[in-house]
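We treat protein structure as text, and this decision shapes the records that our systems exchange. We quote a single record here, exactly as it is kept in our systems:
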Amino acid sequence: MDRQKPPSQEKNWLRDVDREKKQARKQERLLRERLQEAQAERARAQERFDRAEARLRKRAARVQRIEARLAALHEQLSGSATEMPPPAESTETPLEPQTPIASPAEEVRQEQAWLDEELRVAETEPTGQVGSEEIPVAQEEAWLPEELQTTEESQLAESGRGAVYKPAEPGWEEQMLAEELRVAQTPPARTEDVRQEEQLLAGEQSAAGAPLAEEASFGGRRATQPLSTEETSAGEPSVAGAQPPVISATGLAREARAAAVAAEESARRAADRASTIAQRMEQMRTGRHLTQEFQQVQLEAEQAGHLARQAERAAQEIERWARQVEEGNPESAREADAEPSKPGEITEIEEEEALVEATSASTVADAAAANAANAAALAAASSLRTQEARRRVQRAEQVREAIRGALHRDMLLDEEAEVAIQQAEPEIIAAHAELADAEAAEEQALKAAIDAEAEAEVAEGIVLATFDRMENRLDHDPAASQAHAEEEAEPDLDITIKRPALRLPKTEP
C-alpha cells in the first residue's frame, strides 16, 4: 500500500499514457498511409514495366517475322536463279509484254506507310487502342498475299517459260499475326515512358528517312527500265532480271530492332524509377525534420551573409572615397609641393582622414554587431530545440519507467508490458537521436556566436581607439579644435562625428 501512488498522480500518469498512445496511433496511421501510397506507386511502376515488356515481345516477334520473310525471299530468288534456262535463239514473234513486278520503290512506300500507320496507332488514346490496333494487322494480312503474288509473278517473268514456283508456307506468318493480335488485347496506357519511347521512335524514323529516300529513288530509276523481253539485235532478246527488295527489308528490320532496344531501355528506366521511389519513401520518415532544420539554419546563414556583404560594400565605398580624397587633384598636389600649405588646409585634410577612418570603423563595428546578434539568435533557437528534445527524451523515459512500475505492481501482464515496451523503444531511440543532433547544432551555434561576439568586441575597440585619437588630436592642436568648434556651430553640416552605442548580445554558454 505504501508503494502505490496517490490518486492524482495515478490520474496524471494514465492521462500521459493515453496521450502517448494517441500519438503512437496517429503516427502508425500516417506510416500506414505512406506505405499504401508507396505500394500503389510500386504497382503503377510494375504495370508500366509489364506494358513495356509486352511491347518488347511484340516488336521482337515482328523482327523475327521480317527476318523469316527476308530468308524466304532469298531462298525463292536463289531457286529461280538456278532453274532459269538459258535464252534460246529464235526468229519467232516476240512474246507479249508480261505483267510488271512491284518495284523496290513501291515496296519501300508500302513499308513506310505501314510504319506511319503503326506510329499513328501508338499515339492514340488508350480507350481507342484495342480497335485501332487491329487495322495495321489486317492491312498486313492483306499485304502479305500481294507480296507473295508479286514474288511469284517476278519469278515467272524471270523464267521466261511459265515455270511455277511455289511460295513458302504462310503458316508461320499466321502464327506471328495471331501472337500480335493476342498481345494487342492489353493496350498500354499513355504514360511518360510511352511518350519518351514514341519520341525515340520518331527520331529513329527521321534518321532512317534519308536511306529510305535514296532506296526509293534508286528503285524508281530501276523501275523505268523495260521489263519485257525485246529483240535488240538479230534474234537475241535482252532479259531484265528482277531485283529483290533486300535493302528495304533490311532497313525495316533495323528500325524494328531499334524500337525493341528503345522499349527495353524504357522498361529498365521504369524499374529504376520504381526502386528509387521506394527508397525515397523509406527515407522520408527519418529525414523530414532534419531537412526543415537545415533549411532554417541555411536561411539564417544567408541573412547573416547578406548583412556582411552590405557592410563590406559600405567599407569599399568608404575606402574608395578615402583614396579619392587622398589622391585629390594633381595640379593642387603640385602646388602643395611647391608652396607650403596653410595650417587650416592641413587641419582640414587631417580631419577628413580621421572622419573617414572613424566612419569605416563604425560601419565595420555595426556589421560585426549585427552578425553577433544573428549568431546569438541562432544559438538561442538551437538551445530551445535542445531543451525540447530533452523534454521529449524525458517523456519517453517516463513512459517506459511507468510501464515497468505497472509491471512490478502486477497491474500489467508480462506479455502486455513487453508489447508496450517494444512500442515505446522506437520513440525513445528517435528522441535520443534528435537530442544528439540538437546538441551538436547547439554547440556549433554557440561557437559561432562566441566568434561573432569576439569580432564585434574587436571592432568596437577599433572604433573607441579611433575616437580617442581624434580627441587627443583636437586637444593637442588648437587650430584643429577651433575648426572643429566652427564646424559644430554650423547648422548645415551633413557629417558629424558621433560615438556609436553598441549593444552586444549576451549569450549564456
Observations:
- The beta strands are 230-233, 236-238.
- The chain has eleven helices and two strands.
